[in-house]
What does this fold into?
Amino acid sequence: MATLTAADQRLPQMAAVSAMAYARTAGVLILLSLVAGGFGEFYVPSKLIVSGSPAATARHIVTSQALFRMGFAAYLVEAVCDISLTGIFYVLLRPVNRNIALLAAFFRLTGTATFAIAEFFYIAASLISGEASYLRSFSPDQLNSLALLSLTLYGHGGSLFSVFYGVGSTLLGYLISRSGYIPKVLGALVALGGLGFIIMNFTLVLAPAYASNVLLLPTPIAMLVLALWLLVRGVSDEEWQERVAAAAQ
It folds into this structure.
C-alpha cells in the first residue's frame, strides 16, 4: 500500500473538517450530474436530431434555439460536477491507495476533457445553421448536411473516447471496494459500469454494428445507488481517519 507524505496527511485535516461533508457533497453532485447529463446528452439530442433528414434537423436547431442552448448549458453543469467529483473522490479514497486514486483522477479528467472536444461539434451545428454572411457561399442543402454531420460527430466523439472515463470509473470502483468505509457492492457496481464504457468504446471502434447503449446502463444505475448511499449513510469520519492513520504507517 502506498504511504502518504506529510503533506498528504495534513491536507485532509486542513481542507476537510469532515469526510461526511465530502461524502454528502459528492452525493449531491452525482445527482446533479446525472440529471444534467440525461437532459443534455439524451433528451435534447432526441428532440433535435432527425436521422437521415438534414433539413428537419437544421429546422429544429433554428426553431428550438432555447432548448439547443439549454442542452449545452446542461453539459457545462455536468462537466463542473464531474471535475468537482474527481477532486472529492481523490480526497476520500486517497487513504486506500494514493497512486491508484491519482491515476483514477487523471483518467476521469481526461474523459471530461475529451468530451469537451466533442461538445465543440454540438455548438458548431448552431453556428452552421445561423445566418452569418460567410455561410452564403454554401447552399441550404449543404448547410443542413453540415449541421447534421456536426451533431453526428458530436455523438460519436462522446463515445469514441469513453475508454478514459471507463478506466477511471473502474479504478474508482476498485478503491471503493477496498476502502472499508463504503460497501464493496457499490465499488463492484461502479467498476462494472466502467467496464461497460470500455467495452462499448472498443466495440464501437472494432465492430460498430454490435455497439449498444445497453452497455452503458450499469454506470447511471451504479452512480445513482452510490449517490443515495452517500447522502443517506455517508462516510464515517472515524473510519476514514483510521484509514488515513493506517496508510501513514
